[in-house]
Every structure is written in C-alpha cells, then in structure tokens.
Amino acid sequence: MKKLDHAFCTETRPYNQGARLTAYELVFDKIPATLICDDMAAMVMQTKDISAVVTGADRVVKNGDTANKIGTYQLAILAKYHNIPFFVACPTTSFDPCKETGEEIIIEERPDREMLYLNDIRIAAEGIIC
C-alpha cells in the first residue's frame, strides 16, 4: 500500500466539520495535510498530483448508493472529470440494510442559521433567503 504523502481536506461549510474534525484527525495521526476552502477542490485536483479522493458517508444502502454532506457530490464529479479514483470510507454503522436505494435516504437539512451567522454575528445580508 502506498504511503500517504499529503492530504487535502475541505472545510465543509457551513458547519465546518472538515476544519474541525477531519483536520483534527489528520493532525492527530501525523498525516501532513492542508485545509482548503470547499471552492478550491477543482483547482487542487487540476494543479496537484492527487492520487485519490476519499470521503465519508452518512448512509450507505443495499445497492451501494451513498449519502453524505452536500459537497460530496461535486467532489465525485470533479474526481471523475480529472480521472482521480473516488472512494467512500465509512464505519459499518453507516450501512442501512433496510433501504434498497438512495431514493429512500432521508437527507439531513441543517438550520439556516449556520449560513447566516458566525459566532452569533450575522454575516449574511438581511432579507436573503436560505
């Protein structure tokens, strides 16, 4: 198995799970890593020697369909476009044997507040709809 030379992790807005959790795990495991903005993924795939994209999954069903954070879909499309292998890594608790296809997966919806506020300070224009 090839040693991981460097990892890039996305911030995973708006709740910043990548910045808070993925980055922590990479640092904890002493894996050299760079935290990037979600919007940087395409440029990184184009300009860096990326050997694989690995993502998690909130749910995996019988036929292999997966559901994860909203940004995972664009990462999958970018990986395909750039001919980079795309892998889903998740614990067995993510597997749902009761659902046949992804059509049955209930997608989590996060509160609008996560996009409108940062540390209880409104950062978005009044009147904007989320």
From TrEMBL:
What is the designated name of this protein? Answer: S-methyl-5-thioribose-1-phosphate isomerase
Q: What top-level branch of life does the organism fall under? A: Eukaryota
Similarity remark: Belongs to the eIF-2B alpha/beta/delta subunits family.
Q: Which Pfam families match?
A: IF-2B
* Single GO term (MF): S-methyl-5-thioribose-1-phosphate isomerase activity
Give the record's GO biological process terms.
L-methionine salvage from methylthioadenosine
